[in-house]
Each structure stands twice: as C-alpha cells, then as structure tokens.
Amino acid sequence: MKTEIVVNPDDQALNRAAGIIKNGGLVAFPTETVYGLGASALDERAAAKIYLAKGRPSDNPLIIHLSAPEEAEKYAFVDKTFEKLAEMFLPGALTVVLPKKEIIPASVTGGLDTVAVRVPSNKIAHRLIELSGVPIAAPSANISGRPSCTSASHVIADMDGRIDMIIDGGDCDIGLESTIIMSEGDDRVRILRPGQITAEMLSDGGFEVSFDKAVTEKPEDGEKPLAPGMKYRHYAPRARVILVRASVCDFISFAKENTGGGNAFVCYDEYVCAGIPDMFTIGPEKDRTTQAHKLFSLLRKFDDMSNIKTIYIPLPEKDDIGLAIYNRLIKASGYTVTDII
Ligand code: TXA
Ligand code: MG
C-alpha cells in the first residue's frame, strides 16, 4: 500500500484524511500526547485493520477520540463524575473509561462492556475528528510493543506502507500517552495508566484517587489489569533496559566503570561527563516535563544504534509526572531493577 504523507495539513488535506476515515481507511495523526493510528470507531472492519497494521492482540481495546466532551453521551453512559472531570480537564490528556452504548462495536473495545473516551486538545486531531463526523478509534501509532511515536518520523518508521495516510503535525507536546482513569462514581476515580494529568491534579480537583495495581507492579500470571494493554511488554527498544536504583553520583561512577561493551547510560543534562561516550541525556534533573517529552524518542534512538545492547537508566521517583515516567520505564525494562553498591 502507498502511504500518503501530509505535512502541516490545511483544511483541504484534513478533508481528504476525513474522507479516508469515513470510508474505512487508516490515518495516523498527531495528538498532544503521542501520535494515534485512527479509524472510524463505528466500523468494525476498519477497526480490524488497526489491529493488523500494529500487530496488536485483539483483546486490547482501543480509545475512542471525540471532538467535544458533550459527544460522549452518544457512545457511553456518562455520570456526574465524568461531567466534572470534563469541565476541569477536557479537552486534554485524560481518557475516561465508561460503560459503553450498543453503537460501539465489541471489536473496538476488545469485548469489554466499557469504552475509553478521550477528547484531544491538539488542533489537527480536533479538526480531523470534527470533519470525519465519527468518533475515531486510535491506539498509539507504533508497532505493538515498541515505544510510542512522538514525531511523524517515528510513525513513518513503523507504518509506512501499512496505512493510507500519515499526517505530520510536528513533535507531540507531552510525549507520553494520556492518563487513563475509570470513574467509580461519587467523584472517586481509579488510575489505570498514569500520564501528564497526575494523581495530584485529580486530588486537587476534589477527586478521591486510587490506583490499579498494574500501574507500578508486574501482573501475576493470569492476573488481569483493568487496562488490558498494561499486561503486555511495552514501550521497549530492541536493547535490554535495566533500571538502576542509586544516587546520581553512584550512577555516574557505575557508568564510568562500565562504559563500552554495548552499554548505554541515560542521565540528566547536568551530569554529562567527558570520557563516557555512551551517555545520553534526557533533560534537566528537576525538569520531568522535559524528561517525559524526550523519553520515547530517546528509546527509539537506541534502536538506530545497533552497537547498543544494554541501556541503564536511573529509576525515577514516583510522584507527579514521575509516576508516568516510572510506569513506562518499568514496563520497557520488563520490571528489571538493579541496585548498585
Ligand atoms: O494518549 C493516548 O491515550 C494515545 C493517543 C493516540 O490518544 N492513545 C493510546 O492508545 O495510548 P493505546 O491503545 O496505545 O493505549 C490504550 C490503553 C491500553 O492499555 C488499553 O488496554 C486501554 O487503554 N483501554 C482501552 N479501552 C479500555 C477500556 N474500555 N477499559 C480499560 N482499558 C482500556
Ligand atoms: Mg500504545
């Protein structure tokens, strides 16, 4: 299949993209979190093409993307908690799992009787959904298991020749996927996947917040996380990722002692030192927004360096957006954490 690539689309190009969606095709598009791989959420055959293009297990449900929170009630049973969340955080990087209505095919929700609803703030995404006139089912645009795509070049690397169109809207602002929560009624929410809308922000908004165990821990054999996707190895570059629990000083000494031999070390901008050529920066130590923004492109960069066999990364703190970084890295590492003495 020939994939059309459109850079910074005008309305005419977005109308063409919307036509592809309406006719059951696949279009990758930017959002403020990561790039999505979109198809009509009302069209079972189109949704099936998403699973095929990504190599995604069919029990892993898709998020539906809407142009406004008010649209949600057409596809899901909304409650007061959703309305309050929408007022505070939408459009934005928050996905809410709600009981689904009949109109959403079971193949889109992996057979679940709930549907995950998201209203992106990215202007291109918003206009594409509006012009399509249907909810757009879109997982992250990466091949299943690989790090998500935060720029069009990542999407081209994974999807060129597999889908109808790729819209290049530049780098994604946030760089990590949306926060997924489940409403448990009466302003109680459970976080299934952490993101840029943090537990702290939800608490400050007056919500009582709890976490699915899979946010920080490896699911036991046969155990089902509330977000089915959390059970799969994910966000992983080809090289092995090992998280290191150590002070920055000890981490740098460790890097110095182990440089070479296919090892790479991720560190903060302030700690780059001469003499360790295999050191890669992820942003300033205190600026976790930048770290989140750079994480997936850094993991993908390692895939272009065939000499790298093992990537050592400091174990992140678990507060604020750190929890989202922790969650992605712990999964990228297959839960491999080591202490250095
Ligand atoms: O930021 C994002 O959320 C991006 C952009 C493109 O919007 N999308 C995204 O989709 O990350 P995906 O498919 O890569 O991840 C969706 C996650 C999966 O872990 C899936 O299991 C979970 O959401 N999910 C989807 N529907 C669900 C449902 N009804 N109940 C529980 N979890 C659900
Ligand atoms: Mg994904």
The residue fraction in helices comes out at: 25-40%
Count of helix runs: 9
- The topology string of helices and strands comes to EHEEHEHEEHEHEEEHEEHEEHEHE
CATH topology of the largest domain: DHBP synthase
Low-confidence stretches: none
Question: In angstroms, what separates the terminal alpha carbons?
Answer: 53 Å
Nearest-angstrom radius of gyration?
20 Å
SSE layout and pairings?
Elements: E1 4-7, H1 11-22, E2 27-29, E3 36-40, H2 44-54, E4 63-65, H3 80-89, E5 94-99, E6 114-118, H4 123-132, E7 136-137, H5 152-159, E8 165-168, E9 179-183, E10 188-193, H6 199-204, E11 208-211, E12 240-245, H7 248-258, E13 263-267, E14 279-281, H8 288-303, E15 310-314, H9 322-332, E16 337-339
Parallel strand pairs: 1-8, 2-8, 4-6, 5-9, 10-11, 12-15, 12-16, 13-14, 13-15
Antiparallel strand pairs: 2-3, 3-7, 4-7, 5-6, 9-10
This protein binds threonylcarbamoyladenylate and magnesium ion (MG).
Residues 139-140, 148 line the site of magnesium ion (MG).
